[in-house]
Amino acid sequence: MQQYNFTVKSNIHDYEVKFIDNVKKTLETELKEGDFIIIDNKVQSLYPNWFEDVFENYNYIGIDAAESQKSYQEVEPVISTLIERGFRKNHRLIAIGGGITQDVTAFIASILYRGVQWCFFPTTLLAQGDSCIGSKTSINFGKFKNQVGGFYPPNKIYVDPKFLNTLPIKELQSGLGEMAHYFVVASEEDFERYKRDYAQALVDKNVLRGVIARSLEIKKSYIEIDEYDKNERQVFNYGHSFGHAIESLTNYGIPHGIAISVGMDMSNFVSMKKGYITSEVRQNSRELFEKIWLGYTNQVKGLDIDNYLVALSKDKKNKGSLLGLILNKGYGKVFKDFTENDMIFRSWIVEYFANELNY
């Protein structure tokens, strides 16, 4: 089995990423007295044999990994339990779950006792191929996604693709949809390889492991020069302004990576309207995005345009009344573009929802 282990350099602390094939053995080797596991209840129920012995010897808290968990109200009882049960600054939090479990644990680790160490076992494709590196901690504020948080990476990350064996196909599509933006940002060669591998990655874990590793490699190259998302790294928000607005208006009923795949096509549509890319380039990308969002277009095209534009106006990349959109001048040429939220832009969004999702 090819090894993809690497270290990510961080201003806060460098951290290791290791690909593993035995979660139980790794936990038994890694855990120390006083460590506290925070685990997605669904993961615990899917893999009881991996965790039963571990939980007899170490403290753990099970959480229901829904978007509602990512709030001050839901984080508070977790912190209270940790303090009441003797967790100290020299102990570590061990997160086992997907992006929500990651965000909850990272946020708590960053503020509890002014910062404690934490490790992460990502269990979803979204987490393994994207969010596990990058240092971001985010919780939602009311209906607005990821508006509160900071930067606080784990100390170690253990990636085991066997967790993905129990994921429904829509979650694999979602993870691949999220990862797609890295390959557009990287180069035409990377994107074309990704486009070729997409169908096989859904069914072959060896192909998927290689896609995950390349996705993280692309992301690592940017976060090591712009960890705090001030300049170069902002291109990774490609598709996300549009996609986050879709998520919030559907009450997160559409999986994240599916929403992002629509968002990337919307970004390309606006880029085409502005003359940045040709219709041919946009269509070449769309051929992949259509496969990812298959079955979800009716939920998207029914959204209210005015509500959608209001949600878009709340994006944290905006500057004043200008929308801080990540647009596209071609593969490897993604960039930040400030766009007026005016009647012309509104007409493009109206046209997109009316005509581009009908099939």
Q: Report the C-alpha radius of gyration, rounded.
A: 20 Å
Summed over residues and divided by their number, the pLDDT gives a mean of: 94
CATH fold-level topology of the largest domain: Dehydroquinate synthase-like, alpha domain
Total strands: 11
* CATH H level, superfamily name of the largest domain: Dehydroquinate synthase-like - alpha domain
Task: Specify the CATH architecture of the largest domain.
Answer: Up-down Bundle
Strand content: 15-25%
The biggest beta sheet is recorded as:
7 strands, mixed
Topology order in helix (H) and strand (E) letters: EEHEHHEHEHEHEEEHHHHHHHHEEH
Overall tally of domains: 2
The strand order across the widest sheet is 1-2-9-6-5-3-4
Report on the architecture of this protein.
The model has no long low-confidence stretch (mean pLDDT 94). This protein is α/β, with parallel strands linked by helices and 359 residues long. It has two domains: 6-166, 3-Layer(aba) Sandwich (Rossmann fold); 169-355, Up-down Bundle (Dehydroquinate synthase-like, alpha domain), CATH 1.20.1090.10. Helix content is 50%, strand content 17%. Helix 1 (23-30) packs parallel to helix 3, helix 7 packs parallel to helix 11 (256-273) and helix 7 (169-186) packs antiparallel against helix 12 (279-293). The chain has a seven-stranded mixed sheet, with helices on both faces. The chain has a two-stranded antiparallel ribbon with strand order 7-8. It has a two-stranded antiparallel sheet with strand order 10-11.
